[in-house]
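Narrative of activities, Objective 1.

The group set out to show that a structural description can be obtained from nothing but a protein's sequence at a throughput compatible with the screening campaign. Below is one input-output pair from the validation batch, recorded exactly as produced.
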Amino acid sequence: MDIAILFALVSACVAIAIFTQRLEDSLKLAPVLFFNPAFNSQDSYPTVSVVIPAYNEEINIENCVQAVLGSDYPQTLQVLIADDQSTDQTKAIAETIANKEPRVQLVNVPNRPTDKTWRGKNWACAQAAEQATGEYLLFIDADVRLEPKAIAAAISEAITTKSDLLSCAPQIVCGCFAEWLVQPLMMSAIAIGFDFNAVNDPNDKTAFAAGMFMLFRHDIYKKIGGHTAVADQPVEDVELARLVKGQGLKLRFMLAISLVKVRMYQSFATLWEGWTKNYYMGSQSNLWGTLFSAFVFLLIFLVPWVGLLISGYKFSTFTIHTGWEMGILLWALVAIALQFRLRKISAENFQQPLRYWWLGWLGGIIVASIAITSIIKTETGWGWTWRGRSLAIPK
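Output recorded for this entry:
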């Protein structure tokens, strides 16, 4: 028994070291979005349409829109709020803003057609895009908050690098306890699974985009078919990125920690619904890959603390301890120290405090459970929803 525990702890140390190294390698090469003051000629900035799909976003929509309207951008922005038949006060709030602000337009999203499967926000985005007039289309989620220079920085970067789709990883804001447990782990995993260098390499097939901030050249968006081309995909951002890269177009993925912020979820219930919606599909429905990721999360974040707990129990008996028992204690402490270093690197790069890092074991259990549940929901359609809307294909 002691040999098995020791083997698990040594394996955990190796896994943590590999995970940490891959995270460092990805972040070391990650391009960072910043405002370029040299790119300041008004004539250099194209027109931009900002599309905000909104379904039951009464808690977010006003602050999101006001942040966009507060942008320091030399051209007039067109802001399109696509109300996707919300059942709360989202539409009323959007109407009030649109009546006061000529730059804002409310798009009342009609019923989804029955001759084609539309999932998630794709239908709302497609409807709003039809009314967009800007040379660039910026899709953001209602829970996103832009800093005043964010749009100008993204446009100057897209033009300078000749990007057809520029997407940014924002700073993830954590509010509730569940977010502190899960979000730092998820952000690290995404940075590893979708390595920035690989995504930005035109010769690498890896493609990724963060749906909360996607800046398209309008003509390119139309060329690839826009959200209509991925109508039935719940993880539409990744699929759009694959379309762009698959057609030999320029995809760019960046960190925008200081310019774009998002609080994705407000509670454990919404966090669970959101991640179980996306996790499995985000891996292109790779069953064994998703199961392996669940195993890795448990190995990295749970096993070290289980080893420490077992060691603590053994030493509480006040008996003569074997070398195996001493080894378990030593390797458990080494694994936890490595885990702390991993979380510290993640916290520094994503600007997230190290809050509750010592509860990483619980976060690991939750993420592993999300992975497995996501497989079940996606494959069966049972409980596969977003904001209560079913994502399963009707039979």
